Amino acid sequence: MDNPEHKIWLEGVSKVLYTNGRPLPVLERVDFFAQDGEFVSIIGPSGCGKSTLLNIIAGLEEPDGGAIRFGGHDAPSRLGLAGYMHQKDLLLPWRTVLDNAILGLEVQGVPRSEAHRRARLLMGRFGLTGFESEYPYALSGGMRQRAAFLRTVLAEKDLLLLDEPFGALDALTRVHMQEWLLDLWESLKKTIVLVTHDVDEAVLLSDRVYVLTARPGRVKLVQRVDLPRPRRYDMVTWGEFVALKATLVRSLREESHPDRGAEAHIPGARELRHGSTEVPQ
What pLDDT is attached to residue 8? Predict the structure, then answer.
């Protein structure tokens, strides 16, 4: 049931898309909530509607059924209520890091000088000090993602939607970005909803993890993550972490094709199958 502590609350949300005139059910009676200041992840098989669910929360798409509330109030029009970051950084190549960061503020009508001032105040926390005048081509993948995330945070929304923001990064950079995001989230006190294919990432970052079924996506499991905070990456070797990961991977594998090839789409499945808890170096 919805309550005022729920930053976002969905009940019975369904969505049907049409391909060549034929209906394609994508989401079916999804119940979901994220409380104020909570970090929630969504995982599931490819094509199960995870990104569509984020688009619905953001107001980019409308559900065909169900109810959506923000902060305890009906939200028939949700555009602009959440910050949204995609897997691709979507930085404009002709704008500097500083000017990319203020894009959302400019769209909101904030004067350019004031937008620059706000962005400069956060450059250090995002590891971008000294790179304000650089263009995106000169940045590493991790720095581009931090610049894109700075742009999202500067929109000053209490709810942030992240759609696989680290999925395109190499393994080591992704680990560094996960630890950076943990530190940043704990200081910003924002509500974050993350879509990811990385089970380790979901467990490490989240207070709760939603597992969706294969299309049409339905909520199969809601797993609370009771690991202590602040968190750090070496927790992936803890017995409690491995047990949580095993529960999520088992739930995901039940949604995949029974052959072993399906495990390639579930990061960590092969390692758990063979009992390995090796930490990437």
Answer: 94
DSSP 258: S
Rounded CA separation 58/4 (Å) = 19
- CA dist., res. 168 & res. 141, Å (int): 8
What does the radius of gyration of the chain's CA atoms come to, in whole angstroms? Answer: 19
Residue 218: which residues within 8 A CB-CB, separation 6 or more? 27, 28, 29, 30, 212
Nearby residues of 205 by Cβ (< 8 Å), 6 or more positions away? 39, 41, 178, 181, 182, 185, 194, 231
Pick from 279, 220, 214, 216: nearest CA to 248:
220
pLDDT of residue 3: 62
- Across 138-142, 184-188, 208-212, the highest mean pLDDT is recorded for 208-212
Query: Residue 30 in 3-state DSSP?
Result: strand
In this prediction, residue 1 carries a pLDDT of 53
Strands of 6-19's sheet, edge to edge? 22-35, 6-19, 65-70, 73-74
Mean pLDDT over the full length of the chain: 88
Domains and CATH numbers, the chain: 1-81+159-177+188-281 (3.40.50.300), 89-156 (no CATH)
Provide the β-strand partners of residue 221. Answer: 211
* 85 phi/psi in degrees, rounded to 5: -125, 130
Let me know if 42 is exposed, middle or buried by CB neighbors in 10 A (0-12, 13-18, 19+): buried
Residue 223, φ and ψ in degrees, nearest 5: -110, 120
